[in-house]
Structures are given as structure tokens and as C-alpha cells.
């Protein structure tokens, strides 16, 4: 089900009820970019510690924005069956009462989403507004002080507002008190913005939204206007303006209060965007970010870490994408003796996903995440005991068998295998680094070293000294050492910290000098005493 600004408010109560009844919710997001190339050394690297990666990712998250958020709500029925309501929410930063939001577009990301059919018109024209706590505080203060304004900077927005004002000012000159007129074809947030602008400009008008993109304008006396403003029928009360401007943040807060298990796939960047866009600007401290996320969502499950475990424990082919994992779990008979996996049934409003694959559509990917979680958890439960598994396992049983993966989010190409949001991060086990000694090849840089070795394996390269480079990979073949044994300019060996580290070498040199001076002093002292 696709949801934009036009229909979001009326769907919010039903969304709340479904979330409160859910066993868990799965989430996926799409952004205007992933890694900012305008920032130096911002690409992820195997050399990154979690803190270093967080600093890099934080800079990118602050530059890009969300365009779509997918939410799949999984509800357990009486039988061994889960019903899924999956939603696509188109998002656009709030333009009401706060400093105009700027964000960056990555050409490759835009092209990627366009290839998979993303509708940018819905993002731009009907995106649900949102704001974080800092932005909300600014708007609240301006509403109380009466200094709010609409940040409608596009020509299209200005044209809509100008047309509405022109129509009303032309009409009101000849209108009598209690006369009304109707403004039509107002999309999404224009319904609120037009009312606010008209009320601010004209003291003898009253406005009411009629639905179906219409606003009623009535000519009233200033006294009558003041009475209406203080009534419960005013659709532009400050609290309602705030509710409208917060938009999707209202649903985010429902998710936070519900404390349902939150499921995603490679969800580190998803969580960073959730924090930055709907909660608070990302803190500088990595540990503070982890604490905040854990307080917001005490139970997080990344299906990437789960499926890694399934691949090790079961005869599971190595596949990379979420759609491929889902396909393998659906088609393979990985558990011939155990009870069948739960039935996963899409609600009628989401039946399109049962008929057609829609990869990289956020609602579809969220549906895949939740489905992969259930099938993987069922498989692990059946493999965890020799006793017969009951035909209708509860979701709490699945959580028990998933306990080692809870709150551990996959860390792509880095110094740890996963980020532990409820404890210490576990180090990653890479093959030992290689060191390259360069002789007779002046001016060689990291990029050239990468090009030289990429045919053998995907290495990350870091300069150690003027003529030395370290190579790090998830895996490499010993052929690399053999093939470069007699290379005229490059000597490759296994890196040994005590032997190759500049700091260790410096310390050894200083120790050697100190020892030599001590020996000389001893020798000279002994000679003088003789």
C-alpha cells in the first residue's frame, strides 16, 4: 500500500492499532545517496574501526535524505500463520516553520532507484513531512511566539499560494459576511499552508478543510474570527499544526512506544537515518548513538547476521542479495523432517507483492526482511534440538533461538563483524594483512597499488610509509605471495606488527640508541676509575 501526505493522517490510527497487535515489524529505507564522494576518504574500508565508520557514515547521513520508508507489520494469527500489511511511505522534509532543509542527490543512487521504477513525483509532490526533536522544538517556539513561516521556496509552491490569495482577495471585496467560497486542487501540505497564509494575511476570513483537496473560505467579522480561533473546531490550532508538520514522525514515535522487535537487512544506515531524521541529529559519539538506538528499539534483528548463521549451520547456498536469500528459503527443502514453516500471507491491499517481485521498493524489501526472518528462525529452531518441534511455534520461541543475533547489526567490510547495540562489538577475523615493499618505482600511490593487485583479490590499501603499503582483504589466495616473489619492484610478505610497524621500529631504534649510550657511559666510567 502506497501512502503519501494526502492520506497519511487518516491512516495513522489504523496503523497504530496494527503495530500494537503485531508480533514484530520489518523496515527498509531508500535514500538520495549512500556514501558522499565529495568528502575525502569517505569510502568504507576494511581498515575502519566502528568509530571510524560511524564518523564517515554520519557525514553522509547528514547530507542525504530519505525518499521512501517501507514498513511491513507481521501479525500472528491463531494458527501457524502470519498476516502481513506492507506499506510504502513517500517522505519529504517538513517545510513548515523551520529552517529550509537542504539535502544532496547522488546521481548513481537516483539512477539506481529510477531503474527499479521509483516515482520521484510522489516523493516531491506528495511526500509525508517529518522532523526531529530539535526541529520540532524550534517550530513549537515559533508557533507560541507567532513568528512561524512556510518555507515554500519552489516556484510551484509560490504559484499555488499566490493563486489562492489572489482568488480570495478578489472575492472578499464584494462578499458579505457569512459568504463562502471553495478553493480546489490543493495537494497534501498545501491544504494547511494555504489556510495559514490566508489567516495571517486577512483578519476577516475563516477557513476549514473539506477533504478531497478542497478548502472552504468564509468571510467573517474580526470578533467572530476570534471566537472561532478559540473553539475546538479550529483545524489550524497550534497543536494540530504541529501534528501536521511532524507528519511521519508521529508514526516513528508509535513504533518507539510499542517497543516491537524491529527487523531489517544490513540496517546500520537505516538506523542512522531513523535517528537523524525522526529523533535527534546524530551525536558525535559512536557510543552515544548506540545507547540512543538501544533505548528507542530494545530488540533489533538484522537478517544479514541471521542468514550468515543459517549458511554456516545448514546446507545453504551462498547468495548475497535479500531477494536471492528469500528465493532460496522459499524453494529449498532445507528442513525435510521438521514441521513446515509458518504460512506468510499478504493482506489483500498488498497482494501485488505476491504476484510480482518489486526489489528495492521499500515496502517490498521490508516484506522480504520479515519473511526471511521467520523462515530462518524456524529453520534454526528445528536444528537446535533433537526433540520434535511443535507444529505452531510461538514468536517468543523464535526470539529465543535468535538470541545470539539480537541487537547485532551487520558491519559491511570493516574491523568488526557486527555492531552490538547492547554490548561490546566483537572483532572481525580477517586473514593476516600483507605488506608491499616498493623498490625502483617512484611516486607509486594507493590507487596504483589497488589496480596492480585487484586481479588477484579485492584488497583495501593503506600507505604505511613512503615505500610500504598494507593490503587487507576478507580472503586472499596464497598465490599472491608466490606470484610476486620475484617481482622486480614489488616485494609482498605477511605483515608482522613487531617487524613492520613504524612505531615499533621507532621504539626499537630509540631503545638501541639508549642502550648504546648506556654501554658507552659504562665503558667510559669503568676506564676513568681505572
Structural overview:
This protein is 45% helix and 16% strand. It has 530 residues and is α/β, with parallel strands linked by helices. It has 3 domains: 2-131 and 248-420, Nucleotidyltransferase, domain 5 (2-Layer Sandwich), CATH 3.30.420; 146-244, Ribosomal Protein S8, Chain: A, domain 1; 434-503, no CATH class. The strands form 4 sheets. Strands 1, 2, 3, 4, 8, 9 and 10 form a 7-stranded mixed β-sheet that branches. Strands 14-15-13-16 form a 4-stranded antiparallel β-sheet, with helices on one face. A hairpin with a 7-residue loop joins strand 11 (408-410) and strand 12. Helix 1 packs parallel to helix 10 (248-258), helix 5 runs antiparallel to helix 9 and helix 13 (303-313) packs parallel to helix 16.
General form? globular
The helix fraction, in percent, is 40-55%
CATH topology of the largest domain: Nucleotidyltransferase, domain 5
Distance between the termini: 98 Å
Number of strands: 16
Query: Architecture of the largest domain in CATH?
Result: 2-Layer Sandwich
Mean pLDDT: 85
GO cellular component, one term: nucleus
Membrane topology: Single-pass membrane protein
Cofactor: Mg(2+)
Organism: Oriolus oriolus
Give a quick summary of the entry.
The protein is α/β, with parallel strands linked by helices and 530 residues long. 45% of the residues lie in helices and 16% in strands.
What are its keywords?
16 strands; alpha/beta; seven-stranded mixed beta sheet; Nucleotidyltransferase, domain 5; 21 helices; 3 domains; single chain; Ribosomal Protein S8, Chain: A, domain 1
Amino acid at each position: 500500500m502506497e501512502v503519501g501526505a494526502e492520506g497519511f493522517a487518516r491512516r495513522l490510527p489504523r496503523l497504530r492499532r496494527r503495530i500494537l497487535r503485531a508480533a514484530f515489524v520489518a523496515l527498509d529505507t531508500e535514500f538520495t545517496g549512500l556514501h558522499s564522494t565529495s568528502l575525502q576518504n569517505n569510502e568504507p574500508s576494511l581498515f575502519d574501526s566502528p568509530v571510524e565508520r560511524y564518523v564517515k557514515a554520519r557525514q553522509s547521513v547528514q547530507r542525504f535524505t530519505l525518499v521512501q520508508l517501507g514498513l511491513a507489520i507481521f501479525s500472528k494469527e491463531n494458527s501457524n500463520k502470519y498476516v502481513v500489511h506492507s506499506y510504502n511511505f513517500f517522505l519529504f522534509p517538513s517545510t513548515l516553520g523551520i529552517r529550509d532543509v537542504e539535502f544532496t542527490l547522488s546521481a548513481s543512487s537516483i539512477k539506481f532507484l529510477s531503474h527499479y521504477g521509483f516515482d520521484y513525483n510522489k516523493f516531491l509532490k506528495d511526500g509525508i513531512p517529518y522532523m526531529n526533536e530539535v526541529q520540532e522544538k524550534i517550530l513549537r517556539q515559533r508557533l507560541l511566539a507567532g513568528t512561524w513561516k512556510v518555507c515554500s521556496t519552489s516556484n510551484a509552491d509560490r504559484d499555488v499560494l499566490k493563486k489562492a490569495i489572489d482568488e480570495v482577495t478578489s472575492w472578499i471585496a464584494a462578499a458579505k459576511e457569512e459568504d463562502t467560497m471553495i478553493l480546489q486542487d490543493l495537494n497534501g501540505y498545501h491544504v494547511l499552508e494555504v489556510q495559514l497564509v490566508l489567516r495571517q494575511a486577512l483578519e476577516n476570513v475563516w477557513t476549514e478543510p473539506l477533504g478531497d483537496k478542497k478548502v472552504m473560505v468564509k468571510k467573517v467579522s474580526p470578533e467572530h474570527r476570534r471566537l472561532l480561533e478559540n473553539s475546538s473546531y479550529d483545524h489550524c490550532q497550534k497543536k494540530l499544526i504541529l501534528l501536521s508538520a511532524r507528519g511521519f514522525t508521529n508514526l516513528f514515535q508509535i513504533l518507539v512506544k510499542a517497543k516491537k522487535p524491529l527487523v531489517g537487512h544490513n540496517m546500520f544506515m537505516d538506523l542512522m537515518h531513523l535517528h537523524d531524521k525522526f529523533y535527534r541529529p546524530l551525536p558525535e559519539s559512536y557510543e552515544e548513538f548506540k545507547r540512543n538506538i538501544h533505548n528507542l528499539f530494545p530488540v533489533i534483528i538484522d537478517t544479514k547476521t541471521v542468514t550468515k548463521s543459517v549458511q554456516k549451520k545448514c546446507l545453504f547456498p551462498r547468495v548475497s542479495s535479500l531477494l536471492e536469500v528469500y528465493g532460496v528459503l522459499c524453494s529449498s527443502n532445507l528442513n525435510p523432517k521438521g514441521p513446515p514453516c509458518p504460512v506468510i500471507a499478504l493482506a489483500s491491499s498488498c497482494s501485488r507483492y505476491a504476484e510480482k517481485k518489486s526489489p528495492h521498493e521499500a515496502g517490498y524489501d521490508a516484506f522480504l526482511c520479515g519473511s526471511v526472518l521467520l523462515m530462518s528462525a524456524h529453520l534454526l529452531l528445528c536444528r537446535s534440538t533433537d526433540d520434535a518441534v511443535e507444529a505452531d511455534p510461538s514468536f517468543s520461541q523464535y526470539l529465543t533461538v535468535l538470541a545470539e543475533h539480537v541487537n547485532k547489526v551487520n558491519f559491511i567490510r570493516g574491523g568488526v563483524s557486527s555492531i552490538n547495540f547492547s554490548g561490546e562489538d566483537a572483532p572481525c577475523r580477517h586473514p593476516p594483512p600483507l605488506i608491499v615493499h616498493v623498490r625502483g618505482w617512484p611516486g607509486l600511490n594507493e590507487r596504483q597499488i589497488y589496480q596492480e593487485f585487484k586481479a588477484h583479490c579485492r584488497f583495501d590499501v593503506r600507505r604505511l610509509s613512503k615505500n610500504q603499503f598494507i593490503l587487507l582483504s576478507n580472503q586472499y589466495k596464497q598465490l599472491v605471495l608466490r606470484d610476486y616473489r620475484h617481482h622486480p619492484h614489488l616485494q609482498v610478505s605477511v605483515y608482522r606488527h613487531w617487524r613492520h610497524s613504524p612505531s615499533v621500529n621507532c621504539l626499537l631504534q630509540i631503545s638501541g640508541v639508549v642502550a648504546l649510550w648506556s654501554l658507552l657511559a659504562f665503558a667510559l666510567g669503568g676506564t676513568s676509575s681505572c
